[in-house]
Design a protein that fits this description.
By secondary structure, the protein is α+β, with helices and mostly antiparallel strands. It has one domain: 60s Ribosomal Protein L30, Chain: A, CATH 3.30.1330.40. The protein has three helices and five strands, in the order αββαβαββ. It has helices at residues 3-10, 60-82, 107-122, and strands spanning 28-31, 34-37, 88-99, 129-135, 144-152. A five-stranded mixed beta sheet has the order 1-2-5-3-4, covered by helices on one side. Strand 1 (28-31) and strand 2 form a beta hairpin. Helix 2 (60-82) crosses helix 3 (107-122). The relative contact order is 0.24.
């Protein structure tokens, strides 16, 4: 077990299976020393635990927890191409999409769920640049979707 996976275990978490693609794409690809993940939905055991818009059917706190799940799924996708999460030199960028009710403006707080998980698990290597974007709808009516870009140590 990698040190990153040991840290996850210490937090009471485990790396899930890679979420199978919903369309014509790969969960993650490597280009040089970088791994780019596809957008990761908060799938748990093959399904979304909740659907709807944040600020309507889904609270900001629920969505923040779902963003953590997205980050876990993203780490699983990274491992699928990198082989070992201990190869992560740093998380470079996180992009979070939040399906938002028209007047909801708390997207940064929601995406903090992903950012905080990455920092908890990876320490300074998990601190990154980030965008948090409100959108009208996401695939499968998911409340949140997260993609990450990581640099690998050579």
């Amino acid at each position: 077990m990698s040190a990153v996976e040991e840290k996850l275990a210490a937090l009471g978490l485990s790396l899930p299976e890679v979420v199978p693609p919903l369309a014509a794409y790969q969960p993650a690809v490597q280009s040089g020393v970088y791994v780019y993940t596809a957008g990761q939905l908060p799938m748990v055991d093959g399904k979304l635990p909740v659907t709807g818009k944040v600020g309507a059917e889904v609270t900001a706190e629920e969505a923040k927890d779902l963003a953590r799940v997205c980050a876990l799924n993203a780490l699983a996708a990274v491992k699928s191409v990198a082989g070992d999460l201990d190869r992560i030199a740093r998380v470079v960028k996180v992009v979070g999409f939040v399906a938002s009710q028209a007047d909801f403006t708390g997207q940064p707080g929601v995406v903090n769920g992903a950012s905080e998980l990455l920092a908890e698990v990876l320490g300074d290597k998990g601190v990154h640049a980030r965008s948090a974007v409100g959108v009208a709808v996401l695939p499968l009516d998911a409340p949140v979707e997260v993609e990450i870009q990581v640099e690998l140590a050579e």
